[in-house]
Design goal:
mainly beta, 4-stranded antiparallel β-sheet, 11 strands, 50% strand, globular
Amino acid sequence: QVQPVESGGGLVQAGGSLRLSCATSGSSFITYTMAWFRQVPGKEREFVGAVSWRGGSGRYGSSLEGRFTISRDNAKNTVYLQMDNLTPEDTAIYYCAARQFGSTAASTQLYDYWGQGTQVTVSS
């Protein structure tokens, strides 16, 4: 089992950058595909991106690739979300999720472990 814990959220101006971290407990971190989702109050949770346990390039949600970059550091049991050129539409609670030996799926129901979330607010 793993327990993701997000950090790094905050207030940033439009056009700015922010780097979120997801520290994940457990010695089996390298066997887990890690993903980021985001949610605005009153709306469905949205897929941001994911990086496979196998490594390689990540998968990103529509319109996000190019601004957002997911990476992982297996030595630190941590996955990152680098967010650049932020807009007010990026304002949301960002969640980290994990699934063991899984593909980089975009569906929330396929992930077994979730963090509490971290708030990102982008001002105009």
